[in-house]
Amino acid sequence: MADYVGAIDQGTTSTRFMIFDHSGNEVARHQLEHEQILPQSGWVEHNPAEIWENTGKVLEEGMKKAGISHSDLAALGITNQRETTVVWDKTTGEPLYNAIVWQDTRTDKIATALERDGHGDTIRHKAGLPPATYFSGGKIKWILDNVDGVREVADRGDALFGNTDSFLVWHLTGGTDGGVHITDVTNASRTMLMDLESLSWDDELLEIFDIPRSMLPEIRSSSEPGGYGSTVADGPAGGEVLITGILGDQQAATVGQVCFAPGEAKNTYGTGNFMILNTGTEIVRSESGLLTTVCYRFGDEAPVYALEGSIAVTGSAVQWLRDQLEIISDASESETLASQVEDNGDMYFVPAFSGLFAPYWRSDARGAIVGLSRFNTKSHLARATLESICYQSRDVGEAMEKDSGVHLEVLKVDGGVTANDLCMQIQADILGVPVSRPVVAETTALGAAYAAGLAVGFWQNTDEMRENWNESKRWEPNWSEEKRAEGYAGWKKAVERTLDWVDVD
After folding, report:
1. Which of 95, 125, 294, 488 is deepest in the core (most CB within 10 A)?
2. Above 80 in pLDDT, residue 283?
3. How far apart are CA 217 and CA 225, in angstroms?
């Protein structure tokens, strides 16, 4: 057995390749950012060709840094930004349009029409999702209906759809020369096109969206003992490596945080925030604005489901302070700036740049800074930005408790924002429960590695993975119940001010 497992983590802002050993320790990594294309308000795109090119580069450089070759990898796993939609021509391998990113809101009229025409309940029951701009189905329909020639390519069977996992696997396994067109159950469950019970594409849902079945990848498990296919000999991996694991990024983080038991939850702080609660083999249908989704499926075992609260803008709000307002030059400076004040100065920032996701699902919302007085400074804005991350997570946590009856005793956290000690302390204060960060903070890539390694016996079972988990830091809540309640009441008033801003037909 080779000594390492590799993981490609194709995220919203960058693509990285990481190599792990049996203890779950990082051996090496290489990472490259890609362009964020913003053609107009509410539109967010990526260039799939750039993402594929960067994937090749990070594979090559990552192995070079580790001093290994493809033969040292027992398997390769992939995790990816979910819902981001790529449509490409299988005869040329060329994208037929830029990737439409999960944050993009151009499909708001499609989502509204689905609800108006009476399809909302069907989608909720079968797919576990509300009609929303977030998911892939509306994005596929938009491309088919609005990009010249794509419908014709699809009708003749030459257009392929996938989230970025499918796009990369197809290229890695040969592309136009025999590339494998597949996805896993977690990614498929984010399209509004898969039936949660049968784990297959649903004819009624495909008809609602007017999407040809021929475009869709084959749905497979998240960890495949036989593999989905191998990287090609002359490809960027430098030889044949079996690809055996695929997980959407938030499900991958759940696996990386070893949340294998019903009732265990994690919160990932990245571009957005994503809290996932393992509900076991039971499908729990949300009554509180959460998503019902597939958590993972290992081999032929029964699928494990989850409740998820998806928040569109958290870490990207800090990027906004840096790139648009230019009040900080580096994301880490948000902590320094926010630390200069004791509280938010009665100022709240609701970063509803792409509307509000869970638990509100309001595409008509837009960002707002409220409660301003001349007393407020950029330090208060930085503090309010960090608080917005934590208040949105409380919104989701409260909805999760209503749906599941499970009260969180501790919140496992991961992702880039967890390096911000002040933000994590605020999170503990706002939630009123301890917040725990693991030693290996890159749990998304680690989860993909676990799924891949489990398939080939690199790890024998989930118990071995649990043994790898160690706590790096814990934050205990300091606020009084009165202060916590007062702060949250102010947040809820601020959220109300963001609603009904955009007219949606």
Report:
1. 294
2. yes
3. 19
